[in-house]
Amino acid sequence: MSIEVQNISKNYGTQKALDTIDFKINKGEIVGFLGPNGAGKSTLMKILTTYIEADNGTAIVNGFNVNTHPKEVQKSIGYLPEHNPLYLDLYVREYLAFNADVYKVDKKRIDEVIQLTGLSPEAHKKIGQLSKGYRQRVGLATALLHDPEVLILDEPTTGLDPNQLTEIRDLIKNIGKDKTVFLSTHIMQEVEAICDRVIIIKSGVIVADNKLQQMFSNENDQVIEIEFDVKIEEEFIKRLPNLKSFHNIHDMQWELIFNADADMRPALFDFAKELDVKILSMQLKNKNLETIFREKTL
Fold first, then answer.
1. How many Cβ atoms are within 10 Å of 236's Cβ, its own excluded?
2. Residue 166's pLDDT band (boundaries 50, 70, 90)?
3. For the ABC transporter domain, which residue ranges apply (predicted)?
């Protein structure tokens, strides 16, 4: 077991950031950790990386308790925090050499991680001269420098352009073949592209934890996006039969999730006729992670 979290709770004053969190992650899993802003994602990651302590519960990383053996935990993880802390006046190689000394790793590893993270074109520059995307690469290179068993990545693709996104996603996926990767992100397509499993947290509580494919296993769920010619009040939407959840996309546009064997589009035409409104567009959509995320967190 690479990561084991048991009944972890954390409060900031009267605010409960984490409320008795439980999960286990095996070696070789790439797990996406999702949640709205303020849900507790970064707090849990800081606990797992020994930056802060939980109020209650136990966290084990690579067999080491984060409270009783923090140094061993730090040696066995690579961490890229949400706000990537870098020394902007140092050159890329200089910064990586400094961290290589901290971790006591061979200097030849610097060239390996530069190549691995695509830093070669910018490796001669000061970090302060780099774009945000390349600064993220420096942070990722630092996290990989000591070849850790577990990677904990908080918003690892922030600031990357579409080409860089693809490269870093491929890199994370390849790393995950023989390491454990635990990453948070707001980009649902990123999770669908690289993760095996998804954990969703809301207000400090886990509301979903499953293999990615099993998230879509309910064949009776129908996702219908519909737009009316006038704004429909929520109280009327709630009257729809077999309605599982709903989301007001914008004014007159709704995303509706039904749990039913029969096609619900005829029922929506009847609904519109009853209210004497027109349907401007209606589309039956495949259920995706973004749909599930809204369903679990709204």
1. 12
2. confident
3. 3-228
Short-list 63, 73, 71, CA closest to 24: 63
pLDDT at 61 over 70: yes
What distance in Å separates the CA atoms of residue 253 and residue 226, rounded to the nearest whole number?
A: 6
Biggest CA–CA distance in the chain, Å, is 74
Taken in order of first residue, the domains within the chain and their CATH numbers are 3-216 (3.40.50.300), 221-297 (3.30.70.1560)
End-to-end CA, the chain: 32
Burial degree of 13 (CB within 10 A; 0-12, 13-18, 19+)? exposed
Phi, psi for residue 143 in degrees, rounded to 5:
-65, -30
11 three-class SS: strand
Is the entire prediction scored with pTM above 0.85? no
User: What is the chain's length?
Assistant: 298
Contacts of 72 (CB under 8 A, 6+ apart): 62, 64
